[in-house]
Specification:
The chain is an alpha/beta fold. Among the domains are: 377-560, Glycoside hydrolase family 3 C-terminal domain (Rossmann fold, 3-Layer(aba) Sandwich), CATH 3.40.50; 640-754, Sandwich (Immunoglobulin-like), CATH 2.60.40. 29% of the residues lie in helices and 17% in strands. It is built from 20 helices and 25 strands. Strands 10-15-14-13-11-12 form a 6-stranded mixed sheet, sandwiched between helices. Strands 17-25-24-19-20 form a 5-stranded mixed sheet, with no helix packed on it. Strands 1-2-3-4 form a 4-stranded parallel sheet, with no helix packed on it. Strand 7 and strand 8 (259-260) form a beta hairpin. It is globular.
Length: 756
């Protein structure tokens, strides 16, 4: 047998394609392929189809039917079993009682933590910190692995530009570059440097592809994405994931341009295998093969199985269309054994890479305990760096504890250990949660009176019964901090919303608190961008906390009281009103772009005015064309100044690398982090290009008065795009470049790509 280190090395060469092959590496690859081929040659048709089948777990038990299926080799993966003793028993049966002893993949949705819960992925994206995101995934992998899990269905890298979609909470925002960088970081955290090492788990990039563009933001809805847009936006994070060595992918629920992803040969064959050379495997989403007939692309389960396997879906999640029909399809000659072998080979490669044939069992004592001090520290730092300060009028924040006599803490989310965890938390422990109220009280001690009024039973409550008590507490306090937002159940899968204002009577609660005349600080916990235009003018400071996870409370307290300056930046645009959706920074210019000079508000149009194209620009008469908050926006307790932007060369050869740099200065009085962002625009191309595209970012910490020259290196590949002929190309011409603290930055320079 190959050594474990060799197996991992082979995996990263053959499956993950991260390095160029040398003669020695090719030999190792060949050895692995021989091992896969030898095992395939010994397998019966039933055993092969078994590897392509995943069954849901049985809540800590091993019923007779499952035991028999494992002995027969008719199951390749178990889903949602996290009792380590049960997992070990399942593995024992598969390895010791089946004919070939092929171990199981144990799958689980480890989305943003396991027992220790990190901020939702959209919140983690606000950190713009790939190193921290990688640490969080490493922590989650260690905790999940101690339960026997060896495969996670993460990261979700669906570019999401519609905040009505509930699953935007699981995404990394609206930008393909940010998705690619942070998605790769998550993959490295889950998979480590050696997939066979203890505590590593195989990652699964999902949902391939276009799911984030579901019409109307409704889950499972159809997607229509022109191929040019698909390649330039929605596929880019998945290419980055494949380049980062992701072991598996998951097909999308949705159809793409009329063909559901689960049956989409263009995606699974042409793009993923033929163009990108992916050698891992693709799993369906839950029951999505059966649902091909619901889509109306197949007539029955038999035809659905045929369509999915032909497209290139290696494994079926949860349902049994493969188990029920693939044998018959083989006997009828409608599929060939070479196709089955191709599908099974991808699964076996991952199992070999994980070292499961050498060590299928889990010993939790060899791994760190869950929710240990180090893991809690990572969760706290992730929560801290995810916090985005949206408004801070008259420097209301940070609060000076030494000058406070009393503080009113109000709202349904101030002291709810469960709701702060967010969506997709199967294994998180609310008893571990440190709530904002407790953290505030711990920070202030006995020095300051803290009066807590829940005011509303839940975020959805329409009752105003508790408002009088809240108003009295506000009048008696020096400052009011109100915790609002949406419960965790209001975001995530199947939790799309048409109205993304604060639900229930929360806006009315803010109005009641405002009448006290005291400073009002709003902390919003939510799983998506919200339309906050109706409350912005009613608060003195607005801190967006997402669903911050286990350690959200201490992180929020650190920012409220100035222990740390907020440093998060928005990974998604916040619309002014829902009617602007989709609204995102990387939009096209149009032939008649909106501007301050041509915008006309409907209230400024005279009554009975003659028919006229007011402004001749692309805007809404009632909402304009600007969002409430732009992508990349986020305030600090200091002020950062940008200057001296320049490019290393004005004229750059088509094959040359170059730098764009600027000076960043902390012009305030507080040491703080800043996320410096680089944007580029291709001014003329053979297809229309976005007005700005994120091409780089750096997080740096500056002391008061300190300045630093920040440099970004780019090359022709960074400026490449898919043109009319659907090939990746870089064209000569002029480009604009911006460096600043958000996508709204104005500091700009220009350069040219030329043929020298």
């Amino acid at each position: 047998m190959l050594l474990l280190v060799e197996l991992c090395f082979i995996f990263f060469l053959s499956i993950l394609m991260c390095t160029e092959s040398t003669a020695g590496n090719k030999s190792l690859v060949a050895a692995l392929e021989r091992r896969v081929a030898e095992l395939l040659a010994r397998m019966t048709v039933a055993e092969k189809i078994g590897q392509m089948s995943q069954r849901n777990g049985a809540d800590g038990s091993v019923p007779d039917g499952l035991r028999s299926a494992l002995r027969e080799g008719s199951i390749g993966s178990i889903l949602n079993e996290v009792n380590v003793d049960t997992v070990n028993e399942l593995q024992r049966i598969a390895v010791e009682e089946s004919r070939l002893g092929i171990p199981l993949l144990i799958g689980r949705d480890v989305i943003h933590g396991f027992r220790t819960v990190l901020p939702i992925p959209l919140g983690q994206a606000a950190s713009f910190n790939p190193g921290l995101v990688e640490k969080g995934a490493r922590m989650a992998a260690l905790e999940a692995a101690s339960s026997g899990v060896n495969w996670t269905f993460a990261p979700m890298i669906d570019v999401s530009r519609d905040p009505r979609w509930g699953r935007i909470a699981e995404s990394l925002g609206e930008d393909p570059y940010l998705h690619g960088v942070l998605g790769a970081a998550m993959i490295r955290g889950f998979q480590g440097d050696d997939l066979a090492s203890p505590g590593t788990i195989a990652a699964c990039a999902k949902h391939f592809a276009g799911y984030g563009a579901s019409e109307s933001g409704r889950d499972y809805n159809t997607t229509n994405i022109p191929e040019n847009e698909l390649r330039n936006v929605y596929l880019r994070p998945f290419k980055a994931a494949v380049d980062a060595g992701v072991a598996t992918l998951m097909a999308s629920f949705s159809d793409l341009n009329g063909v559901p992803a689960t049956a989409n040969e263009f995606l699974m064959r042409q793009v993923l295998r033929d163009e990108w050379g992916f050698q891992g495997f693709v799993v369906s989403d839950w029951a999505s093969i059966e649902q091909l007939s619901v889509h109306g692309i197949t007539a029955n389960d038999r035809e659905a199985a045929l369509a999915a396997v032909t497209a290139g879906i290696n494994m079926e999640m949860a349902t049994t269309t493969y188990a029920d029909h693939l044998t018959g399809l083989l006997e009828e000659g409608r599929i060939d054994m070479t196709l089955i072998d191709e599908m099974v080979a991808g699964i076996l490669r991952v199992k070999f890479a994980l070292g499961l044939f050498e060590n299928p069992y889990t010993d939790p004592s060899t791994l760190p305990p869950m929710a240990n001090a180090e893991h809690l520290a990572v969760a706290r730092e992730a929560a801290l760096q995810s916090l985005v300060l949206l408004e801070n009028r008259d420097r209301t924040l940070p609060l000076d504890a030494g000058k406070l006599g009393s503080l009113a803490v109000v709202g349904p989310l101030a002291d709810d250990p469960y709701e702060q965890l967010g969506t997709w938390i199967f294994d998180g422990d609310p008893s571990l949660s440190q709530t904002p109220l407790n953290a505030i009280r711990q920070h202030l001690g006995e020095r300051v009176e803290v009066n807590y009024v829940k005011a509303m039973e839940t975020s959805r409550s329409r009752s105003t019964e508790g408002f009088d008590e809240a108003a009295r507490a506000a009048r008696a306090a020096d400052v009011v901090v109100v915790f609002l937002g949406e419960e965790s159940i209001l975001s995530g899968e199947t939790h799309s919303r048409a109205d993304i204002n604060l639900p229930g009577s929360q806006a009315e609660l803010i109005a009641a608190l405002r009448e006290s005349g005291k400073p009002v600080i709003a902390v919003v916990m939510a799983g998506r961008p919200l339309t906050l235009g109706n409350i912005v003018d009613q608060v003195d400071a607005l801190l967006f906390a997402w669903h911050p996870g286990t350690m959200g409370g201490p992180a929020i307290a650190d920012v409220l009281f100035g222990i740390e300056s907020p440093s998060g930046k928005l990974p998604a645009t916040f619309p002014l009103v829902v009617g602007q959706v989709p609204i995102y920074y990387a939009h096209k210019n149009t032939g008649r772009p909106a501007s301050p000079d041509n915008f006309t508000h409907m209230d400024d149009i005279p009554v009975r005015a003659p028919q006229y194209s007011w402004g001749f620009g692309s805007f809404h008469l009632d909402a304009g064309y600007k969002p409430l908050y732009a992508f990349g926006h986020g305030l600090s307790y200091t002020q950062f100044e940008y200057s001296e932007i320049e490019v290393s060369e004005t004229d750059i050869g088509m094959d040359e690398r170059f730098t764009v740099q600027a000076v960043v200065r902390n012009a305030g009085e507080v040491e703080a982090d800043e996320v410096v962002q680089l944007y580029v625009r291709d001014l003329v191309a053979n297809v229309t290009r976005p007005v700005k595209e994120l091409k780089g970012f750096q997080r740096l910490r500056l002391k008061p008065g300190e300045q630093r020259r920040v440099s970004f290196e780019l090359g022709p590949d960074d400026l490449a795009f898919y043109g009319r002929d659907m090939t990746l190309t870089t064209e000569p011409g002029e480009f604009d470049a911006w460096i600043g603290g958000s996508s709204a930055t104005a500091l700009r320079t220009r350069f040219r790509l030329v043929r020298k």
